[in-house]
């Protein structure tokens, strides 16, 4: 039996949701290039596309938006829980537990996508509650008249965001919606394949996304830029980090061997937002890290990934670094649930093998003789 460490290059299902061309650095949702979707579409339309496989008509989109907006409120006891623990707890732990609590209220049966819509609509409300609690601020109720991205920022700041902020948030969410068989999506499928429920799958997804090799990399990348402090320190920092065996966070990918297209798009939003919000030097630092990182690692196919610039976008929009992975989760929940739905149409229990390398036939030694 062949051992495939990290399941590298192992396919576990067929999909018509997302295609990644890792050599050319291209990404397609349901056959549409993310460049087009980031330029012309929006989060709700892309979520509809991912879940239902086609772009909605105007009427379908209107109804879908309304449905999502109506689902934004979170039950009071979940908000109280978020208030109680968010000052000190890791935001991903709070989000994971809040989604788990949501599962207590919903029946096990029913349509996966209908449940997915509920979860996706509520996650930004929980994230905004986490962020505001960390700052000692009161909670802001969702506004059903605003788009998903605009409402997210409204609940964060308690005031209507600028159109640049809304666009940046919308594009960031759109770019995080799905990414084929990443670790968190796989975790969701492992749970779903046992015929567990969708809330349990999403909890598994959040748990896997939390790690710094996956969705936790966005906050780590931003913390790097803050630690560097000035563009003049970049070269020394990168060299010393790499020579001490540490990884450059926001660099490298299992599938992309060139620049991640999402990083290219987010770089432009990071640039615009940082200039507007007096964070120009932080953007300069990031750009310099990109340049030097590519010079050193590019020949091994290690380039900036989505997390490299997304952190800067989220920071400029007013989120704390530790909260960034919860924004990632709020978008990726669309892909998680779409893959679960697709997988369950032809379910097979996920149960791989391990190659045993231990001893056999050992004599049991009574405890007094050991
Ligand atoms: N900095 C320095 N070296 C790196 C990096 C990096 N960011 N990424 C990979 N390498 C090296 C690694 O040290 C190894 O070298 P060697 O062969 O000499 O031991 C080689 O490249 C292969 O690395 P690997 O970990 O075996 O490859 P992988 O496909 O399992 O890694 C990765 C993918 C994302 C875990 C890795 O690139 C990494 O740790 N990156 C930093 C964390 C990060 O930015 N994660 C976000 C991933 S993309 C979006 C997401 O999923 O959230």
From TrEMBL:
Recorded catalytic activity of this chain's protein: oxaloacetate + acetyl-CoA + H2O = citrate + CoA + H(+)
Keyword Glycoprotein in record: no
UniProt GO cellular component terms: cytoplasm
GO molecular function, one term: citrate synthase activity
Top-level taxonomic group: Archaea
InterPro entries per record: 2-MeCitrate/Citrate_synth_II (IPR011278), Citrate_synth-like_lrg_a-sub (IPR016142), Citrate_synth-like_sm_a-sub (IPR016143), Citrate_synthase (IPR002020), Citrate_synthase_AS (IPR019810), Citrate_synthase_bac-typ (IPR024176), Citrate_synthase_sf (IPR036969)
Protein name: Citrate synthase
Organism annotation: Metallosphaera yellowstonensis MK1
């Amino acid at each position: 039996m062949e051992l495939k460490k990290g399941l590298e290059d192992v396919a576990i299902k067929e999909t018509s949701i997302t295609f990644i061309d890792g050599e050319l650095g291209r990404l397609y949702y349901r056959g549409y290039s993310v460049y087009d979707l980031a330029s012309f579409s929006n989060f709700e339309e892309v979520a509809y596309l991912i879940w239902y496989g086609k772009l909605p008509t105007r009427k379908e989109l209107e109804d879908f938006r309304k449905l999502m907006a109506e689902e934004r409120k979170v039950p009071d006891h979940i908000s109280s829980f978020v208030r109680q623990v968010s000052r000190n707890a890791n935001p991903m732990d709070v989000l994971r537990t809040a989604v788990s609590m949501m599962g207590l209220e919903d029946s096990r049966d029913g349509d996966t996508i209908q449940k997915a819509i509920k979860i996706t609509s509520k996650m930004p409300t929980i994230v905004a509650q986490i962020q505001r609690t960390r700052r000692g601020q009161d909670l802001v109720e969702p506004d059903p008249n605003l788009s998903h991205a605009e409402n997210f920022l409204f609940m964060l700041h308690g005031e209507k965001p600028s159109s640049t902020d809304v666009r940046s948030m919308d594009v960031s969410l759109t770019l995080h919606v799905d990414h084929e068989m990443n670790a968190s999506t796989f975790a969701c499928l492992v749970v779903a394949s046992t015929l567990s429920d969708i809330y349990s799958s999403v909890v598994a997804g959040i748990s896997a996304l939390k790690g710094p090799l996956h969705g936790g990399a966005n906050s780590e990348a931003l913390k790097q830029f803050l630690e560097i402090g000035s563009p003049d320190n970049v070269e020394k920092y990168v060299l010393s980090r790499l020579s001490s065996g540490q990884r450059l966070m926001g660099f490298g990918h299992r599938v992309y061997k060139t620049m991640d297209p999402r990083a290219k798009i987010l770089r432009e939003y990071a640039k615009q937002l940082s200039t507007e919000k007096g964070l120009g030097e932080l953007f300069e630092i990031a750009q310099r890290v990109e340049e030097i990182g590519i010079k050193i690692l590019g020949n091994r196919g290690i380039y900036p990934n989505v997390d490299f610039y997304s952190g800067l976008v989220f920071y400029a929009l007013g989120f704390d670094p530790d909260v960034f992975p919860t924004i990632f989760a709020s978008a990726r929940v669309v892909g998680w649930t779409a893959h679960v739905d697709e997988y369950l149409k032809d379910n097979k229990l996920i149960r791989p093998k391990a190659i045993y390398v231990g001893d056999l036939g050992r004599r049991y030694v009574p405890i007094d003789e050991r």
